[in-house]
Amino acid sequence: GMNSVFTAEKDILGMREAGRLASEVLDHVAPHVKAGVSTGELDRICHEYMRDVQKTIPAPLNYQPPGYPPFPKSICTSVNDVICHGIPSDRILKSGDIVNLDITVITEDGFYGDTSRMFLIGEPSILAKRLCQITYECMWLGIAVVKPGARLGDIGFAIQNHAEKAGYSIVREYCGHGIGKVFHQDPQILHYGRQGQGEELLEGMTFTIEPMINAGRRDIRTMPDMWTVKTKDRSLSAQWEHTVLVTATGVEVLTKSDRSPPIPEIVVNKFNVI
Ligand code: MF3
Ligand code: CO
Ligand code: CO
Question: Which amino acids bring their CB within 6 angstroms of ligand 1?
């Protein structure tokens, strides 16, 4: 598919708006993400906020890449050993669960914003907390190397290095992606790689960084619903996602909001983030 390099100011503004709105859906649903709520209820809350308040369209709803059935809900809810693309259902969240909520909106002008966060329910284990924290750091370490002239492999390397030092594994079957007026487009943003390898980053590119990190082995298993992806060894998996813009001097994180968690300590002052 086509590569997303935006040069027109109206496109940058459109992507900024899409990113902000996606992030605001997470801000809106966050207080509801607690023990006793079903993932289907979280889907309903997000869907109604997008439709009635934002006037955005939930990109996942009826999304159907080649070889897939249409995705039946408006957000993805991936609990514990679910790596990604969990389908909201009557499953009730309980203390100790970790859940990823992944939101993609389409604005009235046709721009996509894509972002996800982990939520810890009640009292999660030390391991679960550490996995979520390391994965968050991985995403931000990847973001931190983004600037014109850097390579895609620099992003993958930063993420892989941090995850593997912590004893975790990186899911390879799914990756970040170019995004713009299309949901998924080139380039693919691998969450592993080698420094100096891969495509060069250009000012105006917009793409996601969304590492999926497993506490155990990297192998995956897709459920009969054709969407839900789990760890084969049933170990916990975590994911965070931001949509970013390559600026003249570095990176602008388009899906950061006032209520996004702060930039991790190990990343602060490493780079020129807006
Ligand atoms: N939001 C996911 C991503 O980050 C894609 C979800 S596709 C769906 O790319 F159909 F499962 F919703
Ligand atoms: Co997403
Ligand atoms: Co994405």
Answer: 60, 63, 71, 76, 85, 102, 104, 114, 208, 210, 227, 241
